[in-house]
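hey can u run this one w/ iron/sulfur cluster bound, need the structure tokens asap thx
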Amino acid sequence: MSEPILQVKDLTVSFHLKRGILTAVDSNSFSIEKGETFGLVGESGSGKSVTARAIMRLIRTPPGKTSGEVVFDGDKVFELSAKQMESIRGSKIAMVFQEPMSALNPVFTVGAQIGDVLRTNLAMTKNEAKERTVELLRLVGIPSPEKRLNSYVHEFSGGMRQRVMLAMALSCDPMFLIADEPTTALDVTIQATILELIKDMIDRFGMSLLFITHNLGVVAHSCDKIGVMYASHLVELGTKEEIFNNPQHPYTLGLLNSIPRMDANEKWLTPIDGYVCDMLDPPKGCKFNPRCPKAMDICREQQPALKELAPGHFSACHLHHS
Ligand code: SF4
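ok here u go:
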């Protein structure tokens, strides 16, 4: 087994709001090995993106409060100075977001923005940065990159903007990429090509990947290991094969049944009943209990702990303890 590049231990993130305390991530632990691709899956509001922001130390304090430990490439992230953290962001860890328009600056050309990152982080001259930017745009499939250097973000289509953001993310040759719902805002046909591109770049650059999505179908093709989150908790963790072929948590089963199946005769999609709980007033015990078809009395009283059911396969459900 190779060394972990990222270790998340007992990570908790809460927000102290006027209406109360919202715990977005609750005591979660997982690790990602060098070269591994890890998918973090769950519905909106389950805490996936907050987990990514905590790893990057981007939680604003206050109202946010973070505890636990994140170790990246041997460094304890929460103990680094602001300057040390700044140098890790962008050069060792890069991020691509769901909406490139919010991450890219609309008033500068794409060439100026990527060039700026290269000159600041890698001390390149203006000409070197320009040449490298053309190479990067070509690498991610932007046609006529020499001309498109001078285009603004709004002049690109959604899929092309996502390619530009990937070029920016790759500019400093990071060892770790966080992709936060990178295909959600795109047409279905474009989603597949962007996923393929990310996969191709991961293999080519030998990076590790944390891929965040609400769509379990998406991680089936792109990830080695999967963590399933529900209402702030990691409820199941395992290899892609374990999660798809031997799912153990009722929520994971619900997610799998929600994937449309063209080969099914009668029911081709079974949604999970009910809605995600109000995170300011979550139910007692297992937070999935109001929606769970297998809920028992104990589920309404006690939060189940993660239990290792087979090497590397964990699930948090009272069914495994009875
Ligand atoms: Fe369902 Fe109970 Fe398991 Fe929660 S602990 S998933 S409510 S059976």
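The mean pLDDT is 91. anyway lmk if its weird
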